[in-house]
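FW: tagging you since you asked about this chain on Friday. Here's the raw sequence from the shared folder, copied in full. Didn't touch anything.
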Amino acid sequence: MVVAFNVTDSGQGEWAVLRVSGELDLVTSPALRQRVHDAVAEGRHSLVLDLSEVFFCDSSGVGVLIASRRLIRSCQGRLRLILPANGAVDGSHVNRVLGALGVRRLFEVHADLASALEEDADPLSA
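HL: got it, structure written out here
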């Protein structure tokens, strides 16, 4: 079974929003890494990664998320992740992976795009 991986880009005011769908793994993570680098190179330092449609994430995917955080922080930017809880804090696969690896606390996580775009948004607790 072939699963499509897709990253779409849109702007929401000062925020660049990258919507990711499919599997985030060794094969697909370089594409997301490049899209994040492209956004930063364009001067977009406020970035939302919508991972609500990612149903699998391996260590290379987590590595891209951590590298994206590092890159955005080096530009004094902001990175927010959308990981819907589906009624529970650990509802999404990516959220569970980040939690299991002990890196979930590094990220500002929101349940939806509206929350992520709020200026004084309160992220979900780790």
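FW: The chain has a mean pLDDT of 87.
HL: agreed, and The chain is about 35% helix and 30% strand.
FW: great, closing this out.
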